[in-house]
Design brief:
It is a single chain. The chain is an alpha+beta fold. The chain folds into three domains: about 150 residues, Nucleotidyltransferase, domain 5 (2-Layer Sandwich); about 100 residues, ATPase, nucleotide binding domain (Nucleotidyltransferase, domain 5, 2-Layer Sandwich); about 70 residues, Alpha-Beta Complex (Actin, Chain A, domain 4), CATH 3.90.640. Strands 3-2-1-9-10 form a five-stranded mixed beta sheet, sandwiched between helices. A five-stranded mixed beta sheet has the order 13-12-11-17-18, with helices on both faces. Strands 5-4-6 form a three-stranded antiparallel beta sheet. Helix 4 packs across helix 11. The chain is flat. It starts with a strand and ends in an 11-residue tail after the last helix.
């Protein structure tokens, strides 16, 4: 018998929750193809290692950008591989719940459902990531109480105020971790004249990136890249203050979206948030000091949830376990 699945199909990472078993897969949303034969060579961690390091005929691509499918065929093949890895075959077709950003359009939603059905799912149901995140964080979403979730993903940032099982206020922008990585690449290219890849930019962000000053500011990072003038390898030393300056525009956009969502909330629910606080989820939410920056701008307590990366798929998994009871949460 097929085990029903919940999939958090993120721009950066894909997580799969199997009913009764918990999280069974957590890998980067990357697939490597042979462009000549269109054969899939690798997926997940193995394909991620290939980014920027492959010969011309092998391409390592991210099939989703800004939370939306950019290549339907590759996404369908990737979902098929995910289902195969979790033991799904043509003889046992599971029900699948897929977490999607609330910012995607109706056409993009249908594309995700069609990709899942074409990959072998018996039924594909969609749930918005902020709602799944709130459930995964254990917030009392069915009570008449304001619960605020800020989900910073790879391609999108979504801020939602949830009460009585529904989204009361929502602000979604297509800015996320990848935009922060890209701004680091641009800064290093402009200030030091060296080119670095997206993997190196991500490593810089993890090592010394921050949204708020901290004791980590004493640590500097050695960055290796290609000199744009000579074409030769070159090493420079980067300070945390420089990275903070480089990513200020993206961090500012994320904070502004949180402030705007608060401004659109009913006064009674906004009052609840003084005691409840804001809950920060998503891989991008782990950026050092982001919680302090949001707290400083909103004058509200900000809590980084226990498992920010897994929170969304855990929430979708809980919906899977109680599917009939929570059918109203799914999008048609």
């Amino acid at each position: 018998m097929a085990r029903d699945l919940a999939i958090d199909l993120g721009t950066a990472n894909t997580l799969v929750y199997s009913r009764g078993r918990g999280i069974v897969l957590n890998e980067p949303t990357v697939i490597a193809l042979n462009s000549r034969s269109q054969e899939v060579l690798a997926m997940g961690h193995e394909a991620w290692q290939m980014i920027g390091r492959t010969p011309g005929y092998i391409i390592a691509v991210r099939p989703l950008r800004k939370g939306a499918i950019t290549d339907f065929d590759i996404t369908q093949r990737m979902i098929r591989l995910l289902l195969q890895r979790t033991g799904v075959s043509r003889f046992n077709r599971p029900k699948v719940i897929i977490c999607v950003p609330s910012a995607i359009t109706e056409v993009e939603r249908r594309a995700v459902q069609e990709a899942a059905r074409g990959a072998g799912a018996n039924g594909a149901y969609l749930i918005e990531q902020p709602m799944a995140a709130a459930i995964g964080a254990g917030l009392p979403i069915n009570e008449p109480l304001g619960n605020m979730i800020v989900d910073v993903g790879g391609g999108t940032t979504e801020t939602a105020v949830i009460s009585l099982g529904g989204v009361v206020a929502l602000e979604a922008i297509r800015v996320g971790s990848f935009d922060i990585d890209a701004s680091i690449q641009t800064y290093v290219r402009r200030e030091y004249g060296i080119a670095v890849g997206e993997r190196t930019a991500e490593e810089i962000k993890l090592a010394i990136g921050s949204a708020w000053p901290s004791e980590r500011d004493a640590v500097k990072a050695e960055v290796r890249g290609r000199d744009l003038m000579s074409g030769l390898p070159k090493t420079v030393i980067l300070a945390p203050e420089e990275v903070r300056e480089a990513i200020e525009e993206q961090v500012g956009a994320i904070v502004d979206s949180v402030v705007k969502c608060l401004g659109n909330s009913p006064p009674e629910l906004a009052q609840d948030l003084i005691s409840q606080g804001i809950h920060l989820v998503g891989g991008g939410g782990m950026l050092s000091g982001l919680d302090k920056r949001i707290s400083s701008e909103t004058s509200l307590p900000v809590h980084l949830v226990e498992a920010p990366l897994e929170c969304v798929v855990i929430g979708a998994g809980r919906c899977l376990e109680e599917f009939e009871a929570v059918r109203d949460l799914f999008m048609n």
